Amino acid sequence: MSDATMLVQEVAPRDGLQIEAAWVETADKIALVDALSDAGFSRIEVSSFVSPKAVPALRDAAELFAGIRRRPGTVYVALVPNPKGAERALAARVDEINLVASVSETHNRANMGMSPDDSIAGFARIMETVTGASVLTNATVATAFGCPFEGDQPVDKVIAQVERYRSLGITGVTLADTTGMANPRQVERLVARVLAIVPAEHLTLHFHNTRGVGLANVLAAWQAGARRFDAALGGLGGCPFAPGATGNICTEDLVSMAHEMGIRTGLDLPALIALSRDLPRLVGHEVPGQVAKAGRPCDLHPVPRAA
Description:
Distance between the termini: 42 Å
Strand content: 5-15%
Number of strands: 8
GO molecular function, one term: lyase activity
Structural class: alpha/beta
Protein name: Hydroxymethylglutaryl-CoA lyase
Mean pLDDT: 95
Largest sheet: 8 strands, parallel
Order of helices and strands: EHHEHEHEHHEHEHEHEHHH
Number of helices: 12
Pfam family, one: HMGL-like
Radius of gyration: 19 Å
Shape: globular
InterPro entries: Aldolase_TIM, HMGL, PYR_CT
Strand order of the largest sheet: 1-8-7-6-5-4-3-2
Keywords: Lyase, Metal-binding
Low-confidence stretches: none
């Protein structure tokens, strides 16, 4: 279908595990990140340097970064909420920091305890903290495709927030469908607008599968020119501040679709399926990914014996 490569960025260790009720041991997280590195990911979101009181499931971020085996060519990412978090991330030798602000006023106050303007003012202070450090920067526009409290967000408002990120010197931009409200036509239109100001190599799409159209939205974004996508092994994750939101699009489901369409990812799909099948042991419940349950389309079955 295309000579381009789809860059799949794995977010399960952070975005996937952050809302899990059961504690996942640090050694198990390290083993998961190392296995994801071996599967070929060029970017893995490992953890977040937030307050342990706010997100207790990620309270071992520093230990996790200290323990992982760093694969050459892989960028290890951390979510950073404030300058103190940025300092901790730099001390942990994070390769990239990701900042998040909702375009929705209501969602940002629920999620971050402040207005979007205040969040972005904080980004300026974080950028001052990391100036001179060899760390990449990315910022996410949360609720870019809709807010569960306010509904649709004006496209011009999303574009203005992207432009503010770029004016601060932030290189990468993520458009996040935080609540799984996006539809393919909406995605195609917004991605086309944003690609006019952000190069494809610096734009990431982050979809949730809340209403079952996550992969359809990926395809719409791909056809509009996007090439980078977040996904979570097994479809883990969800937003604690978005009522009804379910997990991220599933990594192995996305990779399987891409490979069946002739789109390269550079990822080891059988390894991903094996990792996904082990997730219930790790998190204590079934996960929503489908390819790990059904197998790849090329995994044929023996012909049933006649009765």
